[in-house]
Each structure stands twice: as structure tokens, then as C-alpha cells.
Design brief:
Length: 455
Amino acid sequence: MPDNDFRNLWDQLSSLINSNETDQILALLEEINPTDTALAISRLNSDDQQQLLTLLQPEKAAELIEDISEAQAVELIESLPQNQAAAILSELDSDHIADLLGELDEAKAEAIIEQMPQEEAEEAREFLQYPADTAGGLMISEYLDYRSFQTIQDVLDDLQANRDEYKTYNVQYIYITDEENHLEGVLRVRDLLFPPRSTELSRLMIGSPYMINVNASLEDLRNFFEEHNLFGAPVVDETMHLLGVVLPEAVEEAKRKRSVRQFLGVSGIVGGEEFRSMPLLSRSGRRLSWLSLNIVLNIIAASVIALYQDTLSAVIALAVFLPMVSDMSGCSGNQAVAVSMRELSLGLIRPTELARVLLKEASLGIINGLTLGLLLGCVAYFWKGNPYLGLVVGGALALNTVVAVTLGGLIPLISKRLKLDPALISSPLLTTVTDMCGFFFVLSFASALLGKLTF
């Protein structure tokens, strides 16, 4: 949409909200696509946003919530009275409810749940007990299940009687359970088309179907759907109770969210997604919380230079090579970080395999460190004609590369074991260590050979 047209849309929507023109608001929102809807909502002030949701019926407000980003939706839900928020959430799919409530603080989420109908409240609490990136956190409760003794006619009658409810379901399979909700089999919807209507489901169902444990990780889910080309899979607990259904598109969306979180973490944005429509002080606090920590880390690294300021003053040429040693080592270390994080995401390595990673990366670090150290040492020698300068900077780079590559491989695994986000921790911690060690190696080696470093 052109900028001028969008500006008109934004102004028009704001005007309709202030005039309480609900019907015209609905007509306007139906004319534009979800992307433009999200953009228009982001330009409204907080009062207009809240008034917009107040004017709309819960069902229509829920449709609006589905069109905007999760971070925007959470911001809107937080601004609403608890009963109104509960009414809107009740119109969403179960997995969407869990996603939004999971982003709220615990007290706010519980207050909203208490305003929901009892059955939906119990379901929301059950879904919230599972981590977001597991089958339990991604599953939905909107599925169809019947008993094995029921017939095709029974199913058709139920579908017709509850068509208004079921029309929003993603129905590809019908699940067969016993009286205690244990999963017995699965039935494709197309299997209902041709047999006589008096046929019992037990004769048509696929026994011992593929299923997923409720605690399966995102990596397990991704591998499952890559191996089995299914439209959905039942989620069960250890006792084979059917708890929900996970869809492949939910897994893809979870993978996208994880990538976004990792990108934000590497970029130093903590506390989730940030938009410029958020309150200024909130945005500032999110950024400063990480930047302030980086000041401390950089002070630690810079303190090494302070310890050797006399050496640096005596051999000023070292100042040229200090950033080169730290930066080149940091690049090598970040390569190791990337490999470890990729292997962790693919399930090719476990956080406990520290010794294996240590051996693999140290070996590679020695080879690359000697190669890079030799190159930089030669540059230093040809520049100043002093072999000892080449030995100092080349040796420091070689040793620091070994340290950086080894730590780069280990930090993501250690972070994972400590239940920290590797994307958030690895890069700044590695940068601090490589800077500190690089400065230390160059300046300590130079101090030991200070008498030889004359030009």
C-alpha cells in the first residue's frame, strides 16, 4: 500500500474509533490485509488501541489479535480489563491462548484465566505447564475423537450437529480413543466416504498410529514431520492419554520464533521482541540492561592494557596489532560458536559432550592459530624489520586463536547445560575473553622480550 494511502487508512481508522463507528471499522478492517492491519494498529496510540478492542465483539477482536504479531497482541491484552481480555482469548485457538498467556507475567495471566469459563481455564492452565518449544506447548485441543464401537453414521451425525463449532477445526484425521481417553487408533477423514454408514470405526481405523510424547522437543518434532509426511500428529503422555494434536505449521512457526529470539539475543535485544510502538522507557530499559553489562565486560578486558601500559608506551607499534589479534581471534571463535549452536539445534551434539568438542576444536584451533600467527608475524617483521615483534604478535595470535576456538565451541554447550540462552551469552562472553586474553598475550610476551623490541 502506498505511503499516502496508508496514512489515510491510519487517520480514517483513528477517526472511526473516536466516533465509535463499529460497523465501519469492521468494514475497513475486512478490506485490508493482515500486514496493513498490523501496521495500522501499531500507529494508533494506546488509548485508541484499547478503545478499538472495546468496540469490537470478542470474536472480531480475536480475529484482529490473530492478524498482528504476538508481541503486539500481548501488549494489547495487557492493557485491557481482565474480563475483556478473557473474553477475547476464549475465542482463540488453544495454542494461541497458551502462547499469549505464556508471555504475560504469572499474576496477570492467572487473573485473566480466572475470568475464563471453567473448562477453558482448566485447559489453559494445563497447556501453560509445558515449555513453549515442546509438543505440549505447541499442541491444540481442537480435534475430533470418537469411540471404536461408533459407526460412520454416528460420526456424520455429530459433525452435522456441531458444524458451527467444528468448522474452525483443522480436521484431517479423526482419533479413536477408549472411555479413559487412551489413544487406540486414527482414521483419515476420507475413509468415511465410501464404506457403508453402519461400519464401525474399529474396522476402519489405523491401529498403533504414529504419535508424539508431550515432552518431545522442537528438534524431535521437526525430525518427526520430516520423516513422516503427516498433516498432524496426536500428542500423548506416558500412559497413552490423548492430550492434543500438533500440526506441522505450528512446528515451523516455533522454529521461526526461535530464530528470531536467537537473532535478537545476538543483537543484544533482551526481554523478547521490540517494536518502536512500545513505550520509550520500556525500550530503553531492555537495551540498557544488556549494554550496561557489556560496559562491565569491556572494562575487564581494558584493565589488562592498564596493567601493561609501560610496555605499550615503550613499544608503541604494539598498539597497531592489539585490535588485530583480538578481532581475528574473535572471528575464529565465532565460527566455533556457530557450529556448536547449529549442531545443538539439529540434535547432532549434546550439552554433556564437552570433551569431544574440546578435542575437536582445540585441534582445529592449533592448525588455524599457527597459520594465522605465521601470517601476522611475517607482516610485523616486514613492517618493522624486527623478528621479535613478529614472534610476539604471531605467537599471541596463535595462542589466542586456540583459546577462542576452544571456548567458542564450549560456551554454547555450557550455556545450554545451565539453561541459559546460548545466542544471548556466547558472543559477548567470547568477545570479552578473546579481547582480554589477546591483550594479555601480546603485552606479556612483549614485556618478556622488551629489550629485543627496539627499532
